[in-house]
Structures are given as structure tokens and as C-alpha cells.
Amino acid sequence: MSVTSLTLILLIIMIAAFVLSSIKLKSPDISMVVAAVVIAIVGTFMFPDLGNPTRYLVEGLFVNLDLAMLFIAASLFVNIYAHSGAISTITRGIVEKIHNKWLLMSIMGVLMLIPGALTGAGSVSIFVLGGIVDTVLESLGINKRKRTVFIFFFAIMSAAAPPINLWTMLMTAQANMPYVGFTWLLLVPILIACAICIIFIGWGAEPKDREEVLKKIPEKTEGMTWWRILLPVVTIVALFLVSLYLPWNIPVLGLPLMFVIAALVAYLCNPVKTTGKQWLGILDGTMEQVFPLVANVLSIGVLQSAMAATGVRGLIGSTCVGLPLVLIYSLILIVGPICQGCFNYGCSVVLGGPLIFMFNTMGMDVTVICAALSLIFPIGDCLPPSRIVGRLACEETGYSDSYMSFLKTALVPILAIGLIAVLMIVKPIWFTFLY
Amino acid sequence: MENTKKRLIIKIVILVIALAIAAVAAVDFWTLRHYKEKIVTSPYLTEVKWFSDYVPSLKNTWLDTPVFIFDSGVEGGTVFLNGCPHPYEPASTMAAYLMIENIEVEKGKVIIVPRCNFSGSTEGMAGDAYPMFFSVETEWGEEKYKIGDRYTNPLDQWPDPFTYVNYPSGQNLAYQDIRNLNRTYPGRENGTISERAAYAVMEIIRQENVDIAIDMHEAEILYPVTSTYVAPAKVLDREHFLETGEMVYVEPEESSLDIAMMAAMNIDQFLMKCSASPNTLHGLSHREWADWSDALTFLMETPEIFIDKITGPRTEDLMYTGSDEFLQRVTDKGLTYFPYEMEFGTPMWYRVGRHLSGAMEIINWASLFYPEKECIVSWPLYEDMEEIENQGIDSVGYFLKNPNAPENKDNVFTVYYKPVDNN
Known about the structure:
Chain A is mainly α. Chain A contains 20 helices and no strands. The model of chain B has no long low-confidence stretch (mean pLDDT 95).
């Protein structure tokens, strides 16, 4: 049998193992590991030269270890900062002072973009700000379904927003491309889509009484001052700037340590009396919060390794490279999100990497295309089996009606970002001015 | 209660299994990390130095590595050959080993570094499932050689920054490139360990007055610069930069690119293209060596399909033969930059032979262009290897010398990050 036939059988086995495991265990992360182990074992029988798969499966765990540490450190920073009352104080101040519906929605949107942009995980935005944003939007007379869509959409856009876009990072790392030049390429389409989302959600809504709203937002934390609010943020920004502009004057800190330093500053700036047990609770809560994401990126590494070793990655990649462009243009907006729903960040490896190779071979601007794919993949965070962000958004607002009607409502902003991204893929040259 | 106990047992069982798997993998990791390759140096060897002789802070680090010097004692040009800047491109190291074992120098001096990024050769490419070793058939049995990573091992340099800023150009590169030896030139004496190794290479070129510096690499066939010489058309005006900080590029007095073009045209056994080094892409040898020394600099790329990623199963055989169905299909669609034929593949001997002949062609043409840089040197060439292959013998193994043979015992050298045995 040819290598193509054997790897095709392996691909089918991999999909079957993943689907069966997902049904049984309800976890895409564990299912990815199960699929990886299954094809590694079967692959060894098909290609005995591969030898013992243990080494490369374990090696896979280290592929995204830095990302996992970044998740943990950044989430720790955000949670300690939120615990100090800084975020609710900012929100309260904004609601008290700003009376324009559109401006208020825009500010809520921008605030939601920040935690996800810093951590690469949209779920962190929901954990930190979801409740407050829901309250503010409710005060503006927006119904529950639309509030859920707003929170979901800004959460997925926050994950895609720079500086930390994990899909881009994973794809660039695979293709040996620098993770450079993506700031405006990601930010401009995101801001356009977010503006469309705000108009769509806010259209026709009648604001409620402001005092009622303020009652629902936590009181300003006693002892909270502007410097306490600003110092942790200034610290992380300063560390970013120093690393970028004075890189030869300081040791390499790495993003996880930078966030740990900022978390320490946030801890020192915290005016809330907090016991050791409460701090431990925050640490524990943070780990609980980021555990699914950590599990996800580590599992992806294992699957990536097994797919590479057995030739399944080669099969998908070499097939994708030869696909007609029209087919890719017309299907990417469907296949990309479905792949994300199945593999989460793993779609960057399963689908993103091969597509980047293909477009690179054709001489197209892969920086723009990589950014575009990174805007399409997050859409799948509302799709089964994982639907992590969609599920979290529903839980945050208490939305319990049909999930399908939520998806239908979300279609408008999703199409906005999706169509921009497809345009970026079809005509990358038009967007090169953004980097 | 029953349920809790059951869950606890399941957790313990999973933990034990995980630890057992980790232990099995750890043995492999340890083996690769501490594997020592033995070579038999040519009688023309005059001195072995180390990177730490040029940058003392590298002593006892995994970025220290041996530097083999073959000095004829006859005044002539000095040639520097760099192997294994990217350990996952193993033909570069094998070419360096074959040179070290078989070299004869009649005029001038030759300096060879076979494992430039030693640290990178002590781990695999995480996520790419490279085999740890490949074997070469020899008269006395199989010899095993390491395949490593593209980058310095994180055990030796970690963490990475969120973006890497190359010194002194200030250019932003991918974060992991801070551990990529061919992005960290010209290096910093007090920088990261990779930057210090890069600085050691620059110091070799400067202190040993190298005239011709050749960096040996391998590249994917989906990459336009595969099967190519890369040399600078222009070089940095160093004085102007040091005075003003402005990077201005000028025509060099002596042109590497002309030599590379002549060499590429003259090679008829295999396809060799020629490309000018971009002025704006920093950290690479063909750019920075030329900018920060007076040497004529060249980079050579052979076609290596493993790097293409979209190959079939990643076996040792694939690394050694380079025969792959998927890449044939991609080539048939006109998407590769190399006339790939899977029946022939890109075997190790072919890639090693290309480096051997490619370097020789550069040395010969440089001697013709600039007679004062003449270096008369010999080692097996592509055609010699082809002849041996035609007899059904592994030509890489054929030109290796037996480290266990009594007649070679005085010339055996163990390649490691520090001297071992009788080194």
C-alpha cells in the first residue's frame, strides 16, 4: 500500500478516535491526546521505522509550554488586579460620567478587549468583565440574547487582538515566520467588526435609569486611588516597552515573568484587606479558570507531534497545498470555525499551518493571510463540541433560550469579521499597508 | 464516599502511568543530550581551539564547541567552514566531518567548526517529531549521528522574549529566533548564550584573519532559496554606522557575489542557484559576517525535505534517503523550487557531496579572483561520492574513518561541549 493510502487510513482513525473520545469524555483536549496516542500506536505498526512513539509524544507536551505559562501568569495578573477592585472602580467611574449609549458601549467593548488581548484567551475577558458588561448593557435596555452576543463577540475578538494572538503565534512558529507586523493587521479589522457589532446590538435599545444600574456595580473600593489603579498597568506596559526598546540593557524576562512582576505590583497596590487564605483562593481560582486552556495548548502539542511523525500532517498539508483557490476562498469561513470548534487552538496546526505553506508557495503575502486566518478561527469558539466562549457567555448572562437563536443573532458581527478576513485572504496585497 | 475513593484511585493510576511514560521519554532525552560523536581527524590537523578561547564566558557551557585548524604553514588564504549552525540540517555537520577526516592542505589555512550550535544538537525539534539519530553504513558497522533542533536548547537558554531584537540592527524578529544562531549574528560578547556563540564565530573570523567564510545549511524545497549560494552584493559601511548609527550599504571592494555566481555557473553536477543577500534582513551569516568582518562570505543551502514539514512518516530512512511521495505530488504541481524526483530523493550523500563540492568551488574561484587568498586544499568531492554510490556503497560511510582502528587511535576526537577522553 502507498504511503498516501496508509496515512489516509491513519487520518480516518485519528478522526474516529477523536469523535468517539469526544462523545464519551466530552473533552476536546483529552480527545486530542487520545487521538494522538491512537495514531502513534497504529502508526508504529504501519511504519515500524518510527520506533517507540513515547519520546515524540512527550516532546509534544513542550511545544506550547511557554504559552501555557503565559496563560497562567497573565490570568493571575488580571485576577489579582480585579480583586483589588481596580476594574469595578474604573467601570463605575465610566458609568457615572458617561451618558451617551454608543460611547458607553464602545468603552465597554474596549475594556473587554484588553484582558483577552493581553492573555490570548477570550474566556479571561468574560471572567473578569463579563458580569459588569452584562449589567451595563442591561441598563442600556439591551435584551439578554443580544447581551450574550456582545459579550461573546468581544471575547473572541479580544483573543484575536494583539499583542497576544495564539492562532497567529502557533502558525508563525510552524512556518518559521517572525511574529512581527501583526498589530494593525489584526487590530483594524477587529475594530471595524466591533463597531458593526456595537451598532447592531445597540440599535433601538432604550437606556434604563442610571441609578438602578449603579446599584448593581460594586461600590468603589475603599482606599482605591488612581495610582493604585494605574501602577500595575504601567508596570506591564513599561516592561513591554523596555523589552522592545532597551533589549540589550536588561536580561530577557519573557512574557510569563513580566506578568508575574505586574501581578506582584497589583498585589502591593491592593487596598482590600485580604487574608492568606483568600490569596490562595485567588491562585486556586486562577488555575481552575485557565486549566482548560492550558490543557488545550498542551494537548495540541501532543497531537501536532503525532500527526507530524505519522505523516498525517504531511497528507493534510500536501493535499491543502494543491487545492484550487476558489474552493479555499469559498469554504474557509465554514471549515475554519468548524475546525476551531473541534480542536480549539489546534486548528492552527491542523488547518492553519498547511494553508500558510500553500499560500507561501503561491507567493502570496502570508503575513496578511496568517492574520486573516487568526480572525476566522476564533469564530468557531461558539461551535460544538467545545464552544468554550459561547458557553461561558451564556452562563455569564444567564441566557437559557435556544442556543441556535443565540448563534443566529451572533451571525451579523461574525459575518462582518469573517468577510473582512476572507477579503484579506483573497486580496492580501490590499492590506500590506497595515504592517 | 465510594465515588471519591474511586476517583482518587483513578487519579493515582493516571499519575503513575504519566510518570512511567515520562521516565521512558527521559531516557531518550538524556541519551541525545549526552551523546558523543567520535571522529578521526586528518593528519593535517595543527590545532584544536574552542569557542571559549574566543569568548571565555562560554567555557563549560553547552554552546562551547571545538574549532579544528588545519594550517599548511605556507602563506595563503584562510578559509572558515561552519557546520551545524542549525543542527536539524545534519548534512552540514556530516560535510564538516568528512572535511575534517579527509582534508589535505597544501597552501593557506582551513578552520572548520562541525557543531556550531552544540546545544541545539542535544534536543529534538519539538512538535516536528524528528528522529534523534541517523545511521551511516561503514566498513566497521553502523555509526550513529545526531539530528538536533533548529534552535539552542531551552535548557541552556530560556525564556524567550516576546519579540527578539537583533543587535545592533534593532530589527525585530520572531521571539524564538533569539535562540537561532543564524539570526543572532554579529552577536554580543555579554549577550545571551546564543549571541555569545555568534560573537565567538565573528571573533574566529576576525582574529584568524579569515578571507573566505562559508556557512553550510539545508533548506526545504518549498523555499525559494533552496539549492542556492547566498552572498552579499553590498556591505555595511561600518565606520559610518559606528559614527552615526545609520546603516548605509556600499559596494564592497571584493565581491563575494561575483565569486558565488561563477561557482554556481561552473557547477554542472547539480543545480546550484545564486542569490544576493538582502541588506534589510539582519542576523544572518551571509549578511552580518560580511558587515562585521573583512571576509568574503557565503551561505550554501542544500535541499532537505524534512524541513518542508509536509512529508510522510518522519523516519530515519526519510532523513537519509529524502524519498517522499507527498513532496513528489507537490513538485508535480509545480510548487517546489527544486527539480525533485522521489525515485532519487535527496539522499544524505547527495547533500553532503553538494556541500563538499560547493565549498571547494567557492575556494577555487576566490583564489582565481584574488590570488593572495589562494588556499590549496582537497577533500572528497561530489563526483567521488557519486562514483562510490554507483558501486552500491554508502559513500558517506566510505569516506569516514574507523575510530576504533589502531592506526587511527592518536587522531580520534570526541565531539562534545567540553574536552573528553584524550582530546
